[in-house]
């Protein structure tokens, strides 16, 4: 009786706030616990996530071969071997272009440094050659003074090669099983849930993976378009290493909104060193134009409604992922949000099957922009 009187003495607003507060605290503790486990198992979790993203890009051709009579194992082998051959050829071509273009870049940078030195001596600054020489000697001395730190950094980098090799093997191993039997794996995972919600969780997984397929495919097309635009512009201007710089923009474009622009700043620096301030400004303008085309045309057209995420959510996701896990976190943040967005919508829907079908129709309405037909459930590897 006294407990009821005490509860009655507290205003309903305070009681509701307290009820929400302790529930939110429990959710926060659970999220922190999950992040702690992920941090401890980063060497395993990150390769699995990367394999999941790559599988979203490769599973459609595997399913296409499977539907046309090729055994599933053979389809996986064909797609992987074709992917490795394409990747190896592109890398070989890029590295060759880098080796060929590096001497020209070195020569142009040397000329730029000589011009800058003459301008500092003969221009408005009227510096003496001794001052410039002393500045150069100071920089060299600073490198010598920090040699121990640089050496230890190189050693630590060498120590991570084993981890990188292990991660690469794990990515490949996991990717093979995702492509071959991803649906069976997901169906087995759903058995840990109560029978009453198992179908709902299964539909949520399908919807989430469908959005991941749309995201990865669309991001690949956007990145390819960005790289082609930057590479063409640099080649027309005669900037050295145009193809390697375009490849860097392609990789950076997998981080939405800011990745291509940040990686493109390297092209601006190269243009500044090799061709001067005018070409650097033109390159910067080219990057801004391409970024605007991506944000206002390519992203809405290619991504579609199924993977549409508010720009604020994208920025917050990238920032949070970068703080928690660096470049890898920024890379995985947006696809994770896209998957959770569609999966949670299906989990909370009154009719999960209808909601999942709607998500599929939104994601794959038009194959011409990288979206698959909803009539092919094989596009979902769960």
Automatic annotation (TrEMBL):
Q: Which GO terms describe its cellular component?
A: plasma membrane
Which Pfam families does this chain map to?
AI-2E_transport
Q: Which domain of life, per UniProt?
A: Bacteria
GO BP, one annotated term: transmembrane transport
Q: Does the keyword Transport apply?
A: yes
Question: Where is it localised?
Answer: Cell membrane
UniProt keywords, alphabetically = Cell membrane, Membrane, Transmembrane, Transmembrane helix, Transport
Under PANTHER family, the record lists:
PERMEASE PERM-RELATED, TRANSMEMBRANE PROTEIN
Q: Which family does it belong to?
A: Belongs to the autoinducer-2 exporter (AI-2E) (TC 2.A.86) family.
Q: What is this protein called?
A: Predicted PurR-regulated permease PerM
Recorded source organism is Mycobacterium numidiamassiliense
